[in-house]
Structure formats: structure tokens, C-alpha cells
Design brief:
It contains three helices and two strands. By secondary structure, the protein is mainly alpha-helical. Strands 1-2 form a two-stranded antiparallel ribbon. The structure holds zinc ion.
Length: 93
């Protein structure tokens, strides 16, 4: 992908500044920035910068973070639900 294509991809994603990022992981380390932008979409179809450590698309990471945060609440909900059910079953006896 050439520079112009990358710039166009950044603009159509609504972030023209992404074109200023390095286009490779190695470039990100060299320039000492935490992200790089290839201009290509990730396997999930996001056109977004990738992190220099691991090369994960930042959009995928955000989604994953959100799911991770959701999990403890769901577990707490299940615990409360099971406890309540257990209590009710005991009372019925
Ligand atoms: Zn992604």
C-alpha cells in the first residue's frame, strides 16, 4: 500500500491524522510511538491503527476491553441469582 492509499484509508475512517503514523510495527518502535497504521483493515474489518506491542487493532482491543469489564458483573449477577434460588428452595421445605 502506498502513502496516498494509506492517507485515503485514514481519511475515509474519519481520522486523517492516522496517515502520520508509521506504517509498520518496526517503524513505530523506531519513531517511539505506540501505534502504527497500515491502511488495511484488520480481520474483523476495522480500519484502525494497530498497537506496536502485539500488533492488535485498537478497535478490536477496545471491544475486548469492554467485554472483559462486563464479565465480573455477569458473574456477580449469576452468583446473586443462584443464591436467591437456593434460599427460596430451602424456605419451601
Ligand atoms: Zn479490529
Amino acid at each position: 500500500m502506498d502513502k496516498l492509499e494509506r492517507q485515503r484509508a485514514a481519511e475515509s475512517a474519519g481520522h486523517p491524522e492516522w496517515a502520520e503514523l508509521p506504517d509498520t510495527m518496526g517503524g513505530a518502535w523506531r519513531e517511539d510511538v505506540t501505534q502504527y497504521f497500515t491502511g488495511r483493515s484488520c480481520p474483523h474489518g476495522h480500519v484502525a491503527p494497530k498497537t506496536r506491542s502485539g500488533g492488535q487493532c485498537i478497535e478490536c482491543r477496545r471491544i475486548k476491553d469492554r467485554e472483559y469489564r462486563k464479565t465480573p458483573q455477569q458473574m456477580q449477577y449469576m452468583r446473586d441469582y443462584m443464591r436467591e434460588r437456593y434460599r427460596r428452595e430451602r424456605e419451601q421445605r
